[in-house]
Each structure stands twice: as C-alpha cells, then as structure tokens.
C-alpha cells in the first residue's frame, strides 16, 4: 500500500530537502501534496522526474492525508498541525511549537524511536538541528557510562535560518568583496566574514532560546533530567553543516579509544578521527549533502578525570531536519503496514 503525504513548507530549504530524501529513499508515496503560503501557490517544484504544483496551505483540505511533514515555522504548525491531526494525519513537525509538550514525543530516530509510537495528539516533534546531531553521537556514551554534564559550543551554518539566510550570506560575501555596504537584514549584524553569538531570542537567564533548546531537548530525549548542559550557540558564515565542540563529563570514566570503538558501530555515526591534516570532519569536506553525523578530534580531557572531547559535524538540513523527519515517517508507516 502507499502513503498519502503532505509537505507543509515545501518551497523552503528544509521542505525541498524533505522531497529530495523521500525520493532518494523511495518512500512509498501515493498522493503527494506540496503546500506553502499563497505567495508561492501555483508555482511548480520537482519531485523525482515529475513536477508538482504548489498549493496554498490555507485553502487545502487535509482529509485523506496519512502523514504530514511540517517545516513552515512555529506559527504555521500551531495553527495547522492540529487540523491535520484531527483529519487523521500523523504530523511530523520540524518547528519548536510542540517540542516541550508532555503529550508530544520528541524523537531522534537512532536514539528513542520507540517513543514515536506514543503520540496522543497525533503529532511527533522533530528535535532542533543542534540537539539532533549531538545526541546521535552522545546517546551511545550516555548508555554506556552515563553523562553528567555537557559543555558545548556550536558553529551553526546559515541554512538553519532558511532560504533568505542562505541568500544573505551569498549576497553579503560578494558585496563586501566589491566594497559594498553589508546591509544586514536576516541577521542582526553582518554574517559574511564574521561570527554571531546569538541564535533565536534571548531568555531571562542570559542564554538564547537556541541554547536552552539544547538543555531542554537533551533531557527530554534521553529521559534524564539530571543531565547538565551548558551551551553557547554561534552562527558562522558556512552555508550547510553545523559543527559542535563538545566536552562530556561522564559518571564512569571512558577512554578516547573506547569512545572511538563505541561510535564506530553506532547507528548514523561515522568516525573520522586521524591526527593529521584533514583527518577530521568539516562542514564542507564531509557533512554538506550527506546523511551521517561525523565525529572526530576524540580525546580525553586532560584537565578532568572523567571527561572526553569530541568534534561533531553534520548537515543540519539533512540529519538535523529533513532526514530525521523522513526516518520518523518511515517508522510511522512501518507501524501502519505491520497492522
Ligand atoms: P513560501 O515559499 O510560500 O513563503 P524557509 O525556512 O526556507 O524560509 O522556508 C519556509 C517555508 O514555510 C516556505 O516553504 C514558506 O512558503 C513556508 N511558509 C511560510 N509561511 C507560511 C504560511 N503562512 N503558510 C504556509 N506556508 C508558509
């Protein structure tokens, strides 16, 4: 049997990649609806060899949709995800609208897939891109020796902020090389040739919301509220692929060699860790356009008796968003077809 799928936000950076990955993985699609705002309704987008006409979400009737993948922002999800669920669809939502609700599971397909089954509201939340790649790499360590505390600094590409952010980095880079004014619009200050220690809104505690997502989501996904997480999230002038410098304090000691061995057989992880020039993953050389979470620079923290350092790199649009959403769709569909 085949699955009727709707992509909400199909014209966006994540939506476009959802379509690409559904085709790559030969997801058994019956009817495919590509939805966006009325701004792009009537336009055409490619799916495999065929073209689909973009429909206006506001005018769309969700009856008959089996699975809906949402990536059109929190406001759109809040308004429309419950309507799709009420019409019988399972909603897989890439926004942060429902992630912290107790009755909405938050699932990384390699880490807590069993939780996707329990979805009383018909909604499964896709984690934030930074949490996603970090936990694909750290969950095996947590299971083996227990994680007490995580110190993480992120180096996040502009694609996480959508198509307009990709355009701003391109335009600014070319413009500055031609002595033009950077004219920041999508980011609060110039992003080309710069770094910005500010992603999402500032919170009362001085952290940004992007940073607090790493705290809240790590605890919810690993099911352990005792894990301490101390993040700094930074936007960098990279198009695709987030990187993270992570220090993990464990309950029991684990050596660098043990971490390497553990991660070598972990699902979704590829270890790239040789102490030579180029023997480590980077967004451009490894992550961009690829599925795995790459881990390198694995070493024991010489300032601490029970801690290791890792460098974690992944394509934020793929594993960080579209790929995990499609993997969740595969889980849901496997349940349905199993009876
Ligand atoms: P549109 O192309 O019509 O603006 P990105 O994160 O790359 O900026 O993409 C955001 C996605 O969400 C786009 O597909 C965009 O469609 C869609 N979108 C934004 N606002 C709405 C809305 N009010 N209704 C439906 N789709 C929306």
Describe the structure.
The chain is of the alpha/beta class. The protein folds into 2 domains: 3-127 and 321-338, Rossmann fold (3-Layer(aba) Sandwich); 130-316, Dihydrodipicolinate Reductase, domain 2 (2-Layer Sandwich). 31% of the residues lie in helices and 24% in strands. It contains 8 helices and 14 strands. The protein has a 6-stranded parallel beta sheet, sandwiched between helices. It has a 6-stranded mixed beta sheet with strand order 10-9-11-14-13-12. The radius of gyration is 20 Å and the shape is globular. It starts with a strand and ends with a helix. Residues 9-13, 15, 36-37, 39-40, 57, 72-73, 76, 162-164 line the site of adenosine-2'-5'-diphosphate (A2P). Keywords: Amino-acid biosynthesis, Diaminopimelate biosynthesis, Lysine biosynthesis, Methionine biosynthesis, NADP, Oxidoreductase, Threonine biosynthesis. Catalyzes the NADPH-dependent formation of L-aspartate-semialdehyde (L-ASA) by the reductive dephosphorylation of L-aspartyl-4-phosphate.
